Amino acid sequence: MAHQTVVVLDFGGQYNQLIARRVRECAVYCEVLPYKTPLSEILAKKPIGIIFTGGPNSVYLESSPHVDPAIFSAGIPVLGICYGIQLMAYTLGGHVASPDSREYGKTDTYYDTSSVLFEGLPEKGISWMSHTDYIDRLPAGFTACAHTGSCPTAAMENPEHKLYGFQFHPEVLHTENGIAMLRNFLYRVCGAVGDWTMEDYARNTISALREKIGDGKVLLALSGGVDSSVAAALLAKAVGSQLTCIFVDHGLMRKNEGDEVEAAFAGHGLRFVRVNAGERFLGKLKGISDPESKRKIIGEEFIRVFEEESKKIGKVDYLVQGTIYPDVIESGAGDAAVIKSHHNVGGLPDYVDFKEIIEPLRLLFKDETRALGRELGLPDYLVNRQPFPGPGLAIRIIGEITPEKVAILQDADWIFREEVAKAGLDREIHQYFAVLTSMRSVGVMGDGRTYDYTLALRGVTTTDFMTADWARIPYETLDIVSRRIVNEVKGINRIVYDITSKPPATIEWE
Ligand code: XMP
């Protein structure tokens, strides 16, 4: 696949993946590499530009990440952001100071619009600062091209050697015109042509998959989540009838979800197997109320069902997994790779007879995966689906699971989702769902006493699901949801809203 590449060197800052996403939003392909990556390896990628991310350290600490100074004379444009600009200044002979007065957060910033970084942009705007150190002496050949009230070097440049830096974070939305500044670096300095689009990606990947797979047989475990659905759509376009998708419906999906998945994939030229295993799963879960036991039972049963079904197909050549880029990025911060374990597919390879694993989304961020799904013609309700845990509603029903409780939760959750969408909040709130607690309390409806379950609503905003804040859903919306659920769903007489962030709570209740 021929496209230009930018390398994002990761120094352990909190916005590293965000920088990479912004670059890709500018239609430029980029890869995140740990700062320790040898220069020869970076150069082998033939990057048109290199971006240093932020990081939590001070450049003067011995333990702080440093780079091979030869990176600045390789003839490739370099942009340093936050810690990145300080590292560039320090390495090239400038000086970084730790001031007494600290600038943090939204800061009035003045730009020199004769700099290529700020060409065509306003002379003044808000930028987002998150590092207290700043450059008080520039390295030779550099000039400052932005400043704030207390920071003389909010940006610097050495156009002759194509070296640039921002003290603030252009990648966060709090920085006005930040993305336009990144775009200026990419297009006006690095010579980007904008050859990273999902249309091209889809076309190239489909033909590459066709070539690789030949007339081989392909198997895919479809969970109904965004990643496996997009992977399935891609493979379906590439090899159609050679593809079998096994969709294990454990009966713990959200309302209508199983049918939606079936409608999207069945009868589209591939072999689609839906295993309705709800009774089987509920049977295994009978009497179980411990969260970890529930997860384990579902995980094991899932593998067993999948194994039985795949045996019917016989030997397959390729097993497809919907791994996406954030799962494979190795962080520059630590030496351990940050790899999320996927409940649904984690155990499969041992149980299925296959030659090789194919991961066609390995290069894509979540938003790109969604864009690719749209490009491939998947319906919006699949493409925009929020994360849903492998064990499904089993971990949103506190205590023992019964078919009645599953039905109650599905109905209540449906109303919640419908009202959040009606209020236009479904993009702002990154994950929201209902939890059926095991607590019952007294209520009064009409003239009668009720003794029913308490339902908890949960909504969070997050960038990575590792930390999250509780979503400030307007009272009016909560009010409508509460009234509708109590009126329309039998078995619930009280609604509470979860106002804990993560940490200390987790997003799911179990
Ligand atoms: P927690 O509850 O750990 O959830 O804060 C973080 C994110 O992960 C999702 N989640 C899971 N996803 N299998 C999955 O594929 C699981 O077993 C699982 N448990 C939690 C959760 O919905 C949230 O988005």
Keywords:
single chain; 510 residues; alpha/beta; Rossmann fold; GMP Synthetase, Chain A, domain 3; 3 domains; 9-stranded mixed sheet; 5-stranded parallel sheet; 14 helices; 20 strands; 22% strand; binds xanthosine-5'-monophosphate
What does this protein look like?
The chain has 510 residues and is an alpha/beta fold. The protein folds into three domains: 5-189, Rossmann fold (3-Layer(aba) Sandwich); 198-383, HUPs (Rossmann fold), CATH 3.40.50; 396-497, GMP Synthetase, Chain A, domain 3. The chain is built from 14 helices and 20 strands. The strands form four sheets. It has a nine-stranded mixed beta sheet. The model is unreliable at 335-347 (pLDDT under 50). The structure holds xanthosine-5'-monophosphate (XMP). Xanthosine-5'-monophosphate binds next to loops. The site of xanthosine-5'-monophosphate has 12 residues, from loops.
Strand order of the largest sheet: 2-1-3-4-11-10-9-6-7
Into which percentage range does the β-strand content fall?
A: 15-25%
Bound molecules: xanthosine-5'-monophosphate
Question: What separation lies between the terminal Cα atoms?
Answer: 43 Å
Helix content: 25-40%
Predict the CATH topology of the largest domain: Rossmann fold
- Main sheet characteristics: 9 strands, mixed
Radius of gyration: 26 Å
Top CATH class of the largest domain: Alpha Beta
Instruction: Identify low-pLDDT runs.
Output: 335-347
Compute the number of helices. Answer: 14
- CATH arch. level architecture of the largest domain: 3-Layer(aba) Sandwich
Structural class: alpha/beta
Any idea what the CATH superfamily of the largest domain is called? HUPs
For the secondary structure, the number of strands is 20
Mean residue pLDDT = 92
Estimate the global geometry from the Cα principal axes: globular
